């Protein structure tokens, strides 16, 4: 059967999700069989494909819907998202639209080549790097006290005292609560007249620990950038990208996730040589029995 061209990308997307779920299942079984799992979350959070399909596992969508009001980076040549109808059912017998967007708009991925040379573009990120155990570090109170808050090594230590060591190969999300401003672009970017923005992020020291010692696959956050809004040299981006890792920005619904014990599926648009792109992110969470 020939698949219509307008459905091909969705079929490929669903196939990617299926492959990821199967990989997670196989990883869990392999770790259990060996009895010496390097990633304890895989064993403790074993999820079968049947659990996902039947609804016994909860799927949390971590991406915002794209529209003309979607917050975008307020830099030169950056434009709001545009959706244009180019064919209608009434006139053409088919509904078709054209999207115009920058790579780094809405919920998106920063590929390793975003800030570093000789690093993979978004289409070259190995697929296995897009499936991982997930971790959420809650920093809402700190972010309420200061819009310029940055995650410190001491915060990582405090989290691990309660939740255990961050597993190798995880995607770490920093939950600042900034998503409450999503529908108010001016408040979300929190930008001064002179151009400086004020929103939370990771500190370079914390990023180094997560990348070099915890060996995470990526860092995510619910703000415009993994660097704090006041950053001018984007050290966190450089640290993450230089290690061949990716960033996930403008992540939604982090408040719906536990601190650990869930899986993450990252599904970015696949653009040749791209430095990033709109990304659908799913968290697979075991339902409580």
Textual characterization of the structure:
This protein is α/β, with parallel strands linked by helices. It has helices spanning 5-34, 40-44, 49-54, 89-92, 140-145, 153-163, 185-189, 204-213, 235-242; strands spanning 57-61, 82-87, 96-100, 108-110, 131-138, 150-151, 171-175, 201-202, 218-221, 246-249, 262-268, 276-286. The chain is globular, with a radius of gyration of 19 Å.
CATH class: Alpha Beta
Largest sheet: 7 strands, mixed, barrel
CATH homologous superfamily grouping: Putative cyclase
Which geometry do the CA atoms define? Answer: globular
By secondary-structure content and strand pairing, the structural class works out as alpha/beta
How does CATH name the architecture? Answer: 3-Layer(bba) Sandwich
Count up the helices: 9
Give the SSE map.
Layout: H1 5-34, H2 40-44, H3 49-54, E1 57-61, E2 82-87, H4 89-92, E3 96-100, E4 108-110, E5 131-138, H5 140-145, E6 150-151, H6 153-163, E7 171-175, H7 185-189, E8 201-202, H8 204-213, E9 218-221, H9 235-242, E10 246-249, E11 262-268, E12 276-286
Parallel strand pairs: 5-7, 6-8, 7-9, 9-10
Antiparallel strand pairs: 1-12, 2-3, 4-10, 4-12, 5-11, 11-12
Helix pairs in contact: 8-9
């Amino acid at each position: 059967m020939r698949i219509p061209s307008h459905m091909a990308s969705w079929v490929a997307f669903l196939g990617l999700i299926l492959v990821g779920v199967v990989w997670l299942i196989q990883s869990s079984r392999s770790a259990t069989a060996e009895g010496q799992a390097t990633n304890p979350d895989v064993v403790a959070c074993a999820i079968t494909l049947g659990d996902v399909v039947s609804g016994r596992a909860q799927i949390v969508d971590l991406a915002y819907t794209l529209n003309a009001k979607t917050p975008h980076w307020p830099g030169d040549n950056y434009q709001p998202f545009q959706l244009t109808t180019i064919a209608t059912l009434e006139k053409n017998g088919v509904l078709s639209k054209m999207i115009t967007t920058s790579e780094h708009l809405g919920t998106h991925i920063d590929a390793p080549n975003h800030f570093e040379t000789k690093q993979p573009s978004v289409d070259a990120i190995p697929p296995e790097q897009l499936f991982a155990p997930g971790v959420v570090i809650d920093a809402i109170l700190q972010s309420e006290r200061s819009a310029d808050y940055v995650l410190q090594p001491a915060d990582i230590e405090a989290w691990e005292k309660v939740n255990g060591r961050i597993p190798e190969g995880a995607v770490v999300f920093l939950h600042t609560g900034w998503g409450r401003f999503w529908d108010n672009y001016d408040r979300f970017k929190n930008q001064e007249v002179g151009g400086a923005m004020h929103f939370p992020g990771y500190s370079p020291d914390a990023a180094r620990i997560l990348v070099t010692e915890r060996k995470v696959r990526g860092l995510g956050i619910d703000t415009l950038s993994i660097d704090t809004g006041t950053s001018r040299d984007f050290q966190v981006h450089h640290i993450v990208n230089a290690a061949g890792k990716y960033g996930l920005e403008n992540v939604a619904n982090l408040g719906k996730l536990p601190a650990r014990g869930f899986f993450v599926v990252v599904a970015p648009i696949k653009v040749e040589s791209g430095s990033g792109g709109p990304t659908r992110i799913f968290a697979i969470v075991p339902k409580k029995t």
